[in-house]
Design goal:
The complex is a heterodimer. By secondary structure, chain A is of the alpha+beta class. Chain A has seven helices and ten strands. The longest helix of chain A is centred in the N-terminal third of the chain and has 30 residues, at 9-38. The radius of gyration of chain A is 22 Å and the shape is globular. The N and C termini of chain A lie far apart (60 Å). Chain B has one domain. In chain B, helix 2 packs antiparallel against helix 5 and helix 3 (53-65) packs antiparallel against helix 4. The mean pLDDT of chain B is 94. The chains are: A alpha+beta, B mainly alpha. Chains A and B meet through helix 1 and helix 4 of A and helix 1, helix 2, helix 3 and helix 5 of B.
Amino acid sequence: MTKFISSKPHYEYLRKKWSARHRAVQNKFWERHGEHLKHLALGSLGGLMLLSSPVRPELPPPNLTVSRDDVLKDYDRNVLLAQALSIKIPKEVRPLDSLEEKEITDILSRNLGFKVAAEMDNIRLNRNYGLIGGEQHLYRYPGDNLYAHADSTSDWGKYGDAGIAPGLGAWGYFSPSRQDFSDTDKQRERYYLAIQTFLVPGYAENVNKFRDFFKYRKMLVINSKTGQAVVAVIGDAGPAQWTGKHLGGSPEVMDYLGLAEGPRKGPVLYFFIDDPKNEVPLGPVKIRSEA
Amino acid sequence: MKHFYSSLIEIESIVVELDKMDLTKEQRIHLAALVDSSLHHTILDAVLSELTHQDKKVFLNHLKEDDHSKIWKFLNDHVDKIEEKIQKTAEDLKQELHKDLKEAQNK
């Protein structure tokens, strides 16, 4: 009889060892504190999400890879929005006309609870419906590295393989130094878009004005097929026209749009967010009401 | 996902070692999830072990809401040197994980 030999013994070793350790810490945890968790109403799990019980059926099933704000959690409600949008969005991926823009931004503003707009301060993008492609991580401060981008080991597992761009984003580093690096800077790199600002009408004549306007400008990007939506900032200029893509998304943006696998490309709507008080947080968006 | 203790825990050294290994994306995600969940259980065990029966309930409710400011205010009011305790707990587990990583690299 042939003995099976794994082609990756290092993985098998870690998988077995870490699975056993995980079971042991789970058992210890539930033996010592399980009584207290039983009494919690598990409507929204929040920081309890990674807790999984090896034996107790009344608790959520072991769920090691799903994060609290995993977009699938809201998939059904987002789909309702996608359905409402589908009759307004053209069949082919092309720039929207003014009527389409208005109808779509009205639907989005109504459902998301904040105002989205195709035009602000008399500035509008070259288009608001296009193909998004996956971008790499960006250096956030001098001395930054890819590993430092991960908040958790799972972050690295999901987003590490996207790599880090060799050059800086359009606005340079997000922070002048590691010491000055803030949570705002971190969120901006995590949820950034590359927008073809160089194709915006009037850009060449108004470089300074437009640069100031676009720098970290808050935007909504939404997967037109699924309704999965993310609030992000403009963190880079691109992609080049020859790529056939119209904008780019950070690894995290692509993940929350449901476009991180396969060709890492797909049609999205993208609009400015009118948020003068900076109240709309970056990250995946939950639908407030039925579309 | 960012946890209330994320800023206290350095996971970069684990990630660097894992990144040196030949792993598929699925394998990376699986091992990463085991690390995160083990850390989470171990740290919460350490925190809950410092609290009274009643305080555990309050803490778990804050945790459920995932309100980091409330969690830290509560912990700092109820447990002496809680940050140090969390860091020590995480470091102990990480040392074991590093030992495993070293073993795995020799396989």
